[in-house]
Amino acid sequence: MIYGVSEGNGERQRNAQHCARANTAPARIIKAARRWIGTPYHDQASVRGVGCDCLGLIRGVWREVVGPEPMPVPPYSRDCGEMGPVEVLAEAAHAAMTEIDVADARTGDVVPFRMRAGAIAKHVGILSGNDRSARSHHFIHAYERTGVIEESLTDPWRRRVAFAFRFPISKRKP
User: Fold this and answer.
1) pLDDT tens-digit profile of 57-71?
2) What is the assigned CATH class of domain 9-166?
3) Which among 57, 60, 22, 29 has a CA at the least distance from the CA of 129?
């Protein structure tokens, strides 16, 4: 967060409003994502309460927190073992979000996973915070047999994190 010295009360209020918005963004993202919990899994869908896949969850949260989706989503394969030189999911995220170091990921950030060694990242979730233990983080994602759930980011999941991205700060009112 950037703090600056400003002249006048109006400028201080604008700076405070910006800082407050930046501080509430992760909470807004998690609140939106948790409303999707219990949505059944449905490949390539993005309708809360009806059906979504992992990308559909991110798309739905984006629409609520940021606004209209920035690009159309082409059809994609469900093959979690897909190999290839192009990280399609990461490239699309780059176009709309800010990539951050995985070690700097925090609540509200989007984390794509490689489900198999050597495969491209094909699964994605949203970090949803942690409990009292610094190593016990949670995330929200849509999984084929469970639909949208929130669960612990266990070591097997943590090892699969390939990238981390941050939603842009929205000008939408919470």
Assistant:
1) 999 999 999 999 998
2) alpha beta
3) 29
